[in-house]
Amino acid sequence: MTYLFNTPICRYRYLNNNLYIKREDFIPFSFGGNKARKAFYFLEEIKKKKANYIVTYGSVSSNHCRVAANLAAFLKLPCLIITPVENDHISYNKKLTELLGAKRIFCKVTDVKETIDRTLSDLYHDGFYPYFIPGGGHGNLGTQAYVDCFQEIIDYEQKQNVYFPYVFFASGTGTTQAGLICGNLLNSKKIMNFHRQIIGISIARKKEYGISVIKKSICDYLESMEKKELIEKCQNSIVFLDEYIKKGYDQTDDEIDKLIVSIFKQFSIPLDRTYTGKAFSGMTHYILNNKLTDQNILFIHTGGTPLFFDFLEGLH
Ligand SMILES: *Cc1c(COP(=O)(O)O)cnc(C)c1O
What we know:
It is a single chain. This protein has 10 helices and 10 strands. The chain has helices spanning 34-48, 63-74, 92-99, 112-125, 140-160, 175-186, 207-224, 254-267, 276-289, 305-314, and strands spanning 9-14, 17-23, 53-57, 79-84, 103-107, 130-133, 166-171, 197-202, 239-241, 296-301. The radius of gyration is 19 Å and the shape is globular. The chain is an alpha/beta fold. It has a 6-stranded mixed beta sheet. A 4-stranded parallel beta sheet has the order 5-4-3-6, sandwiched between helices. The chain binds pyridoxal-5'-phosphate. Residues 33-35, 63-64, 136, 170-177, 275-276, 302-304 line the site of pyridoxal-5'-phosphate.
């Protein structure tokens, strides 16, 4: 099971480098983004298992929950979303999930696991076969989605005769990053991929925890593919930068806001405060701090278009 979307890669000049931007926000489902790419893999599983209820977890502004609600509507299945009550606020993703008919259960952040377990067992009890999509589309299926995305990147490199020594993107649960790293490892025989820097800009997690989760995702995936021998090759080379988190998930500052406006004007590309804006800002600092010039740099735009409109609403 492989989906090749071949999302466009466009080239720009940025800070004296060639900046290529891969538009995952153009994936043709539910405003696109990395959660939409992952959703196609969950779609297969849901059909295979003949599930008749979708349950997932995430915040009110979550892109993943919007996509899961859209997937449920597409399959004509009911959808329940478990959300920590701590981060309830108005957002376009919230409005969209409501429009799509998904129901929400709020719980304390400390009660999430228990609430998920109880919800699933209640549904079984009522005669449903629920399918639980892990928060953020985390797990081997989500990893597979970004192994396949990496294949698109390699195909592009070969066709265009270009090589990306630096790949930047927003890293949350790290599933996207794990997939990109595995894709790179699985292709390392064909091209010299070991020097490639796959740089996740953390949007919330501190380095130590973030890296441990990415490592676990990589191990789980490679084990499932019976490629355990590749694990050691990436053990100490995971780059997950936590210096651009600002005050935490969803937290921004003036610098990021200005950058979002400037990138929209210059390149007509919408970024957001939570993910892509933070990642773009992190990349900008990295380029300047490391004095990169005339490099071929790839930025993966991981989506989140509705959050761009939240950003607009927040402007005075
Ligand atoms: C969820 C999300 C991410 C982070 O993806 P992970 O696979 O969880 O690391 C990045 N960008 C956007 C727009 C997202 O919605």
